[in-house]
């Protein structure tokens, strides 16, 4: 049992060492997982910091691009303002040109009107002159007709000179008046011709001057218009060139910014993909570590359960060991009492044997004792019902032994004769009783070991009851034997010692068995 306990304790120690190793492995795994978590957290923080830096750089670049675009917009707005100013100036100049064109048209219209009025006046003068010429012709025709009529009249008057002198005077006065009127009309025609010539000359001069001034103004305006158009074309060409340059610069800048942004985007995507892969690997490692930790925890839980079961078994074994130690202590005490009782009984038996046993009756007694002991051993190994019958059989054997026991003198002679013949003496009752007590202690130890190894409590209790019954039967047997030996003239001291030993054995609280020598 001690070896089993030591083996169990060694197993418990091994399991504790395994648990400590598992706990160390679990701590190492926890440290590794913590380190991996720290690494993953640092990697995630680094990735987040890199992303934040990249985002800040992108934001700065976007701000710079926005500032550049704002500056370009402001420059374009300034240029647009300048262009608008130039356009306003051009429009103003175009308005001035239109005004000059309107003024020239008005001048041309006034000149045309004046020329038309001059032409109308000239036509009127010409009409007047024609009318005057017609009047003159009419007057000349009238004069001619008058002259003819006068000549006819003169001829008539000459024919009739004397018709009337008054009519001749009247006709002469009328002719003079007609001549005066003709002269006046001629003078008026000359004046009209002179006025017409002067008016035509003035009109020609005015028209020439107006044409010259208008031509000069038109040339000046055309030159200014051409210069303004040239300036406008130059400004438009400059504006177009500036717009083209600006567009080219903007396109180049946008293309460069887009290319840079795409490169940054690709780089960021690659870095993000790398970071995702790192995060996936870290998560995978974390999952593996968690799985390993869970497995280690499960193993540790199983080991803990095993340890708990072993600790329970250890406690049970300790309790059993304590019970065994208590039983051994009780058995030691019982053994000490039994040894004392058996020594006293052995002393009494030696004294009785020295006094009463002859050699022949001793042999019969030993044969009968052997047969009775074999029957008692078979009855002790059988059931509890047969134990009582075996006890009765042993009592019958004791009665026969008491009847066949020789007197003391014959016993001493037999022992003496046996010693002289060289026969090996039999074991003394003290040795047999001590051997029986040791065998009883060994039987109790074996029964305790069998109960510690896992036998049921009912079988152990039945065995204990059998042993108590056998011990009671043996005690009764020895008490009867001692009473008969006392009645067969034992010495008073031996009989008293045997009675005291039997009384002490009966009063002892421990189990005491007195099997024969063959029950070892």
- The arrangement of helices and strands along the chain is HHHHHHHH
Structural class: mainly alpha
Q: What's the total helix number? A: 8
Let me know the largest β-sheet.
none
Q: On the 0-100 scale, what is the average pLDDT? A: 65
Give the CA-based shape: rod-shaped
Radius of gyration over alpha carbons? 85 Å
Strand content: under 5%
Distance between the termini: 21 Å
Fraction of residues in helices? Answer: over 70%
Features:
single chain, 520 residues, mainly alpha, 2 domains, rod-shaped
Secondary structure elements and their pairing?
Blueprint: H1 2-159, H2 165-356, H3 359-381, H4 384-404, H5 408-421, H6 429-452, H7 457-487, H8 492-507
Short summary:
Residues 200-213, 229-254, 371-390, 427-461 have a biased composition (Low complexity). By secondary structure, the chain is mainly α.
Describe this entry's structure for a reader:
Residues 72-97, 260-273 have a biased composition (Basic and acidic residues). Residues 67-97, 154-177, 200-273, 347-472 are annotated as: Disordered. Residues 200-213, 229-254, 371-390, 427-461 have a biased composition (Low complexity). By secondary structure, the chain is mainly α. It has 2 domains: 2-278, no CATH class; 315-419 and 428-519, no CATH class. Helices cover 92% and strands 0% of the residues. Helix 3 (359-381) packs antiparallel against helix 4 (384-404). The protein is rod-shaped and about 265 Å long. The model is unreliable at 382-395, 404-456 and 510-520 (pLDDT under 50).
């Amino acid at each position: 049992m001690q070896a089993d306990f030591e083996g169990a304790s060694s197993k418990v120690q091994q399991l504790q060492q395994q648990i400590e190793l598992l706990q160390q492995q679990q701590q190492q795994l926890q440290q590794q997982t913590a380190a991996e978590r720290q690494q993953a957290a640092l990697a995630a923080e680094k990735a987040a910091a890199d992303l934040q830096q990249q985002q800040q750089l992108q934001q700065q670049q976007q701000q710079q691009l926005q500032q550049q675009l704002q500056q370009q917009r402001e420059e374009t707005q300034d240029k647009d303002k300048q262009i608008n100013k130039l356009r306003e100036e051009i429009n103003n100049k175009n308005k001035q040109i239109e005004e000059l064109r309107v003024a020239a048209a008005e001048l041309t219209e006034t000149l045309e009107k004046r020329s038309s009025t001059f032409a109308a006046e000239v036509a009127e003068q010409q009409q007047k002159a024609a009318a005057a010429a017609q009047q003159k012709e009419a007057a000349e025709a009238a004069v001619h007709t008058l002259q003819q009529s006068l000549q006819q009249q003169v001829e008539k008057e000459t024919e009739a000179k004397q018709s009337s002198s008054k009519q001749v005077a009247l006709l002469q006065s009328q002719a003079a008046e007609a001549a005066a009127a003709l002269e006046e009309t001629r003078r008026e025609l000359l004046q009209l011709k002179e006025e017409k010539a002067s008016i035509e000359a003035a009109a020609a001069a005015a028209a020439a001057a107006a044409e010259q001034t208008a031509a000069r103004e038109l040339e000046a305006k055309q030159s200014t218009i051409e210069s303004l158009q040239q300036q406008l074309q130059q400004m438009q060409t400059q504006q177009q060139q500036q717009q083209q340059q600006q567009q080219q610069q903007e396109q180049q800048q946008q293309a460069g910014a887009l290319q840079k942004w795409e490169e940054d985007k690709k780089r960021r995507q690659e870095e993000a993909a790398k970071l995702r892969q790192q995060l996936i690997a870290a998560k995978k490692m974390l999952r593996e570590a968690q799985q390993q930790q869970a497995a280690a925890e499960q193993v540790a839980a199983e080991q803990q359960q095993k340890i708990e079961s072993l600790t329970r078994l250890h406690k049970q074994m300790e309790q059993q060991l304590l019970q065994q130690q208590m039983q051994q202590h009780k058995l030691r005490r019982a053994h000490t009492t039994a040894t004392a009782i058996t020594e006293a009984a052995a002393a009494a038996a030696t004294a009785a044997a020295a006094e009463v046993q002859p050699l022949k009756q001793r042999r019969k007694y030993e044969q009968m004792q052997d047969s009775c002991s074999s029957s008692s051993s078979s009855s002790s190994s059988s059931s509890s019902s047969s134990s009582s019958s075996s006890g009765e059989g042993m009592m019958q054997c004791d009665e026969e032994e008491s009847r066949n026991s020789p007197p003391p003198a014959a016993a001493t002679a037999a022992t003496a004769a046996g010693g002289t013949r060289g026969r090996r003496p039999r074991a003394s009752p003290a040795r047999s009783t001590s051997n029986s007590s040791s065998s009883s202690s060994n039987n109790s130890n074996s029964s305790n070991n069998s109960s510690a190894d896992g036998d049921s409590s009912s079988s152990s209790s039945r065995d204990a009851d059998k042993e108590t019954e056998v011990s009671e039967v043996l005690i009764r047997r020895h008490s009867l034997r001692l009473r008969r030996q006392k009645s067969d003239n034992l010495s008073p001291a031996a009989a008293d010692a045997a009675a005291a030993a039997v009384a002490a054995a009966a009063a002892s609280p421990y189990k005491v068995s007195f099997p024969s020598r063959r029950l070892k």
